[in-house]
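MODEL INPUT / OUTPUT PAIR
PAIR INDEX: 1
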Amino acid sequence: MLEIKNPETKERIKKQLSAIGTLPSVPQIITEVSALLDNERTSANDLCKVISKDQAIVAKILAVANSPLYGLPRRVSTIEFAVVIIGFEHIKNILVALSLVDAFKNRNTSTWNHTNYWLHSLITATAAKRIADDLRYPKSGEVFTAGLLHDLGLAVLNRYMNSDFLKIYNLVNEQQLRHINAEEQILEFTHQDIAEFLLEKWNFPPYIIEAVLYHHKPSLAENGKVLSSLIHLADYMTQKLQIGSFEWDNNYEFDENVIDILGFGNIDYLEGFIQSYEPLFKSNLENLIENKLM
């Protein structure tokens, strides 16, 4: 079981990551969009002008909005229509998450498959949002953001702490450990703690940070067990259905407290619920590949 980190551990994480001088700052487009959204006079057109400066981000937003798991009732062909049908805050959620994941993009190597990581992050995010909508969770846009960022710490670990990353990789192969247990052995903390540090540094809302921090054990979350559980369930489903799965989640340990937290009643009902999503997962994967977002 993952333990809640004590202040000494958090200070060690902070010291180690603060020593990395090349960590990306929050992308400029996020700063601009946030400033616009703080102004009550901002129009949809104002927002579209800023977003349209980055056509790669525009393409990604449209591909996500049109993915089967995202669940919009009609096709979105322009960023202007996306802003209208999705709403300002949801567009911001998508933009923030996509920009940050892109900022930590790594090349594929023999020990790190960024393509699989990116695909897994997108499917987890869209699946978590769809499940949130189906369960009538009121803030599904936030669920998408937390879902897309849930494994951000792994990308940071690979890119900026690569010697430790390789030690973890080798330990997993030598001793057949779960990756998260190997992280604990080598680092005395995990990729979740790395993400917590960065998201706090970038002033993310506490509920997003908590959902990312406890996505492997949502029952430990203090204030946002439902949000954490939605991410955990979607993450688990990628492994269970073997669609959008990621090797660092091999032998994923499901937190059965999620059954009660999300109101499924029993494990049999949850199993049926998971299987009912398989066609959506498959079509979502095809959509992401077709739009070259993998």
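PAIR INDEX: 2
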Amino acid sequence: MRCRAVSEVQLRNALDTLKSTGVRITPQRHAILEYMIHTMTHPTADEIYRALEKTFPNMSVATVYNNLRVFREAGLVKELTYGDSSSRFDFVTHDHYHIICNDCGKIVDFHYPGLNEVEQLASHVTGFQVNSHRMEVYGVCSDCMENNTEQKRA
């Protein structure tokens, strides 16, 4: 979990951003946004729905998807798509990278400033005007490695 004071500031700023674009703040929107700020797991819309369904029994998965679309359009979340699997959503919208577990699908953020030079080099070499890049690193997380080791011992 992120620091509570930072989370409260992020929530307030996100709500202000939505209000400034004319988006009405419903209890469901507030809860989805708060969940996104507090989670570090890059959840799918289904995971968000399951986490909030007891609090909002009349909320549908479609409501979650629609709100995530609103948040994405407002620049509050990034939609992460990886192959055929469901989209995952990330509240951290500043430049950073992801390492993804091949076994369980866990996604973890990391930052490496040297990778910003890749855009400059790509632009210089190709003549393209680069607007963004995306990098993913794949491997096996420590939890899965531990589980695999335990299974081999059994």
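PAIR 2 NOTE: Residues 4-20 form the longest helix (17 residues).
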